[in-house]
Amino acid sequence: MVSDVLDTPQQSFDPIVKGPKFTSDVINTLISSIMAFFAWLLFFSYYGLILSLELIGIVITFIVFMILLPYTLFQIGRWFEIFAYQLLTIRSGMQYLNYKTKCPFLKRKRLTFYCIAEQIRPKDAVFDDTFLKCHKASMWQECWSNRVPSILQVFDTKLPKQKQQLIFILANMKEKAAQSKTKMLEVLNNYEEDIESKLAAGYALAEMKEEKAILPLLTMLGKFDQRRDQTVRAILVRFQSSATPYLAEALVNCESENICGALIEVLGKIKDPSSVPVLKEVLSKPETSEYIRLEVLYALQENATNEAYEVLVHHLRNAGDEEHEVIRTITQSNKKMVLLLIELLSDSSISKEYYEKVGDILASLDASAYDKLFTQISQEEGSERARYLARILKENTPEDMEFQPLHLVLQKYVTTPESLDEF
């Protein structure tokens, strides 16, 4: 249930200005039904006359029939809908809610008329006209923030599924439900609490930007099945950069390979530049396993900062075969990585082995890719920058026949021998 909420984009609903009225809905539907009745009456009164027009009459009859039939069925459906909502009113004790004011967050596929009224009855909380006027999505921001005490008052009396739904309501109010943080932390730290409720509480606290939830969530990594473990990771990502120090410290002290991998993955998805040093440290340790090294490479790719790309490029020096292939794959779809590698070719201090690894990755791109790349550099950074890089690449590209297409492309950007010095 929590993972469904994390994966599904939140819909937006326009708030209604005036609360719905049972009488007005009945009158509007009654008028429409009378119009449908007279339309049918008119249709059958002139049915014979229309058919006398032979083929044209048959076509007209068919068109009119196909318009009137759906319209009539729609009006019949509206009557059923009105009485269904009135039934909900009787069951819940709330004022009448029409089709425009269904509770959007808690609606289920086959439970169209199910609403929060089924979770908190009037004996637990008061639903006044102000609440009904913004019962749609705006309720999370405007109406329900005034109902947080009522939700907290009845929270412990509800079943796990109902608790989760109430937690999601609090989560959607974000910081406006701050007074519920203590209760959510209590749920998150309660070992006897239902696991789905704990995850929901973690999600709500992430939406409220409550950092006290980060450490309990970290202890949940690797404790559950794959789906729930992925949910914990997704919740941690929602804390963004505020979670980075906690994740970095946990990674430094991590002993389980699976948990280390999870921490690295979350750090990558947060995309915080401050996480690059700790990832670099893990990558440089001789005792780091190949699995963790690969996880760090993918995390650096996800991080997508200049600092992360520099670490990837310099790791080529010590990269194993599989790591080399990962960096090659990352480079092929990343302009910044290509440019860093090209500039490395002009560094006379790099070892022959490192130079060959750089050249091997650059050689994996075809001439058309470089043509597109240098055109983009010319437009974004200027022709001098493109000329400088093209000259370095040309001077370090073999004259073999297979590289001739690349030389032809590079020649377009290398104009005079003095260009490099001038730059």
**How does CATH name the architecture of the largest domain?**
Alpha Horseshoe
One letter per element, helices H and strands E, the order comes to HHHHHHHHHHHHHHHHHHHHHHH
What's the N-to-C terminus distance? Answer: 58 Å
CATH class of the largest domain: Mainly Alpha
Helix content: 55-70%
Number of strands: 0
Assembly state: single chain
Rounded mean pLDDT is: 77
Largest sheet: none
Structural class: mainly alpha
How many domains? 3
Tell me the strand percentage band.
under 5%
Give the uncertain stretches in residue-range form: 4-19, 98-143, 416-423
CATH superfamily of the largest domain: Leucine-rich Repeat Variant
Radius of gyration: 32 Å
Global geometry: flat
Number of helices: 23
CATH topology of the largest domain: Leucine-rich Repeat Variant
Give a summary of the structure in a few sentences:
It contains 23 helices and no strands.
Please describe the structure with a list of short key phrases separated by commas or semicolons.
423 residues; disordered C terminus; Leucine-rich Repeat Variant; single chain; mainly alpha; 64% helix
Task: Report what the structure shows.
This protein has 423 residues and is mainly alpha-helical. It has 3 domains: 121-238; 239-365, Leucine-rich Repeat Variant (Alpha Horseshoe), CATH 1.25.10; 367-423, no CATH class. It has 23 helices and no strands. Helix 7 (160-172) packs parallel to helix 9 (195-207). It starts with a helix and ends with a helix. Mean pLDDT is 77; it is low at 4-19, 98-143 and 416-423.
